[in-house]
Amino acid sequence: MFAPLLILMLVCLWKIKFNFSKTGFGDYLQKDKTESVKGLFILIVFLSHFNKYVSYSWTPDVYAFKIIGVIGQAMVIPFLVYSGFGVMESIKRKGISYVKGFPKNRILKVLLIFEFVNVFKILVKFILNGFVELEFIILSTITWLDWYVFAILLLYFFTYFAYLIFKDKKNYALLLISVIVLTVLYVTTLYLAGTPRFYYDTVLCYVIGLIWSIYKDKLDNFFAKNYVFYPVVIVLAAICAVSQIFLKEYKIAVIITYLVVAVLLLLITKKVQINNGVLSWCGRHLFDIYLVHRIPMDIFFALGINEISNYLYFGLSAVATFVLVLVLDLTINRWIKRLSKPKTIKE
Fold first, then answer.
1. Where are the domains of the chain?
2. 178-207 core/surface letters (b: 16 or more CB in 10 A; e: else)
C-alpha cells in the first residue's frame, strides 16, 4: 500500500499549480479541472477497497493503510459535489430542453452501464462460488447493494422532479429548497430504518454543488473579499474531523462534518490545481472505474494471488481494471453515445 500511495502523491505533484491571490483560480470548476480531482479520489477509492482484501505487516504499508482509512467516506464527496454542480450548470444553460432529456441522458445512462456491469458481476460470482443467492440478484439489480449508484439516481430524480414543478417560476432557489427537502427526507427515512450510515451521510454534498452553481459568483466574491474565512473553514473542518472521535455515534455530526469538508474542497481547489493527463483520464472514466474495480480484486483474491504478494495482487487488479474500463468504453459506452445522439431526418 505504501508504494501505490507514494506514486499517487507523486502523480498529484505533476503539473500542480498554486494561486494564493485573493481570487485564486477562476476556472476551478471547469470540467477539465474537476476531472483531475475526481481522478485523484477514484484512485483513493480503489486503494480503500483494495485494503479490504489484504493485511499488512510492513510498517510503511500499515501507516499508508491508516492514512487511507482516515479519509473514510469523505473520498466520495467530490463526486457528489461536482455532480450537483454539473447538473445545475446544464439546467441553467439549456433549461427545459436539458431537463426533458434528463431521464434518458442521465438516469437511463447510469442504469444501463450499471446493469451491464452488474450482470457481469453476477456471472463472476456464480463462477467463483458455484451459486448466486436470489436475494443478491434482486437487490443488486435494483442498485440497493451499491449505495452510491442508488443515491445518485435518487438525487437525479429529485432534481428532475423539482425542476418540473418550478420550471415556470424561473427561480432556482425554489428548486434548491425542493431538492434539499427531498434529500433530507431520504436521509431521515434511511436513518429511522436503521440503514448503515454510509448509505446517506454524504448525499447532502450533492446540494453543496447545486448551491455553488446557483450562487458561484456571489460566493467567489465573498471569499475573495473575506479572506479570513479560508482559515475559519479549515479550522472548522479540523474541529469537525476531530469531533468524530467523540461524536461518531451522532449521525448529524458526521453529516455536518462532510458538508464542511465539501466546502473546504471547493476552497482548496480555488488555490491548488492538480491537472494532468493521468488523473484527468481517471476522472473521465470515474464511473466505469467505480463499477468494475472490485471484479478483478474478487477474481485474483479467489485465485489466492493476495497470499503470494500484496503488490502483485495490487498490480494485477489495477491492470485488469484498466482493461475492463477500455472494454466498457468500446462496448456499452459507445452504444449509449449512439443512443443519445439525436436522430437526423433524411429529406
1. 2-339
2. bbbebbeebbeebbeeeeeeebbbbbbbbb
